[in-house]
Amino acid sequence: MLLRRALQRRPITTSLKRAQPGKPGTLILLRHGESTWNAGKLFTGWVDVDLSARGRREMEHAAQLMLERGYKVDAVYTSVLKRAVTSTMVLLAELRQTYRPVVKDWRLNERHYGALQGLSKARLAKELGGDKATRIRASFDDRPPEMPADHTLSPLRERKYDGVERARIPLAESLRDCLERVRPLWHENIRKDLLAGHDVLVVAHGNSLRGLVKEIDGIDDSTIERVAVPNGIPLVYRFEQVNNDLQVVKGESDIISGEFLEERGLLRTALAREEKRRSGEEEEAQVAGEAELTPLERSLATLESRRRVFADLAGSEDEPEPSPGKADAVLASRRKRRHRRHLRKALPGEPAPPPLLVIIRHGKTTHNKLGLFTGWEDAPLAPEGRREASEAGALMAAHGIKLDVVYTSWLSRAIETAWLALAPLDMVWLPIVKTWRLNERMYGALTGLSKKMIQQEYGDAQFRKWRRGYAERPPAVSPFSPHYPGNDERYTTYAHDLPVSLLQSAIRSIAHGRIEEHPALPRAESLKDCMERVTPYYVDTIQKALDARKNVLVASSENAIRGLLMHLCEIPEDRVPEIEIPTGIPMLFDFERRCVRLLDDGQSPAPRERYNFGTGGDLLFTPADGGDMDPHVRLDDEFIVDEVGEECDKEIEADLEAVQRVEQFYGVRGHLAARPSSPSDC
């Protein structure tokens, strides 16, 4: 909670090294892609639904628009709702900028639609009439009836808001309420980042983005009701600095100063889609395939292909209206049997259990499959690696694991592994702390080369020293090589905890004709070097989170994890090279026995026998006291508790009360929903 609050309170400027005094940054506003409930025409608000398949394509499309114009971002703000966080993930992956700092702030959430949430927009419009239904959604000051606190969909039941004062969590909001909670984030965080010269991306929701647009452009209350922000099309604002404050650069529009990054015809179609969505109509788009070119060429080719398809949207037929009976998500949820699993809490008089530390090596990459030295090369996950990461998250969810914070490296394979693992846990809202200190070992001049080629050229003995030796460094990479991290923006921009390299600073100052300070980044590392940056980070940062009773996930690379386990399990340095870390397997560190345990997945043979942990694997699973212990946490262990329908009756009553409030408020009692026959329907 404290870490989340700290991340939410301060501008990202504090973690950035680069700034452009006197020249404000650029602001890009982006509405999340279509969600599954957008597609079903349901009131969503604070309900945490995910993107639809089309929503993901919309975010890829947005990234391609940004790539086409050459936009990069220094920092990202988003809400804590899954559809916005997932949109951010998809966008950054397509931009190949997953290492950017991301702040997740509840104040950027969508407007809370109260007791309307989960109900069918089409049914409400049918009962009330289209004009009245539109006023309910677009009116600046009207609030819908409140959602009961015990309702299935109430935010008071969600752990993601534990760090927010209960009185600040709404149970219904007008458009004014939503805009008022967004305003402080603009003045306290985003505006300061822009004044510092940093380019900022905000991925949020239609109404929270309206709040930012209203604040930036000074739009009056009645006009803001007519402002539409379509899904997936970036809205770019540029600023000038006047008297130490921001002044927006006016665009062509009479209402908003920002520029939508899309051709005029496509923009008109997108805005028309948004207006049709408001009135309960929708259109479906098919997206063309992508060309297998270089990453940038592929993105731009896909963008052009989609433009041709989207240009035909205006003439497409509307999709059929879904059945109101099937669209009522609240009633559907009542018929589901609620099943909860979690780690057992301490009973009265028992000491509190230690916090959880889960360690996972990233999923398999193409470099892993081809047998290449990867190191700090930013190789993406292979399809198998993405599947491994998702399955790891599903396994943790089956064991009822709840996390509080994630630590990972600046390499996209580790970041994406963390993202994919959090999705089955329904915890994408968690803060993800990224640091270069959890990077893989830097393999120097070997980076990107075939391991078999190096073994053949230099002999088996030298190959083993470079690959597995504890203190042996491979040949250093040239500082002019693309594999040298000093030529990668992420390290020159964000690595502010390194000393300055006088030699590299002098070389680059001469080359660029201006004074530059260049960080002393590694040109090659031994396993010892890698461990000497990982261990202090664990002690100084991760251990503090554990001491604060936070459950921690570390998603990293094999050699960084080797160094971490050497410290935790007190493994002798001459035995560390004997340990192998399989990809995509969550490992739970047992603080009481000082050893690693694996999560049982119900398959035979068990994970310890199924996966290769090297000839020194027993060093991981042997307790410090030398006793015997099952290396697995079984699904039926006594500290895992199942709860089946414990609060079912209370939830049914709250769900029914929400529908009754809507019916009474709008005078359509008895028409919006049927009643479940009995509590057993839960």
Summarize the structure in words.
The strands form four sheets. Strands 12-11-13-10-14-15-16 form a seven-stranded mixed sheet. It is 39% helix and 10% strand. It has 682 residues and is of the alpha/beta class. α5 crosses α6 (130-138), α17 (451-458) packs across α18 and α21 (527-547) crosses α22.
List keywords for this structure.
six-stranded mixed β-sheet, alpha/beta, disordered N terminus, 17 strands, disordered C terminus, 682 residues, seven-stranded mixed β-sheet
Would you kindly provide a brief summary of this structure?
With 682 residues, the protein is an alpha/beta fold. The protein is 39% helix and 10% strand.
The profile of the biggest β sheet is: 7 strands, mixed
* Main sheet: strand order: 12-11-13-10-14-15-16
Principal-axes geometry comes out as globular
Total number of helical segments? 25
Record field, number of beta strands: 17
The structure class reads: alpha/beta
What is the distance, rounded to the nearest whole angstrom, between the alpha carbons of the first and last residues?
Answer: 32 Å
Helix content: 25-40%
- Overall average pLDDT: 83
Poorly predicted segments: 1-9, 281-292, 312-340, 673-682
**CA-based gyration radius:** 27 Å
Beta percentage is 5-15%
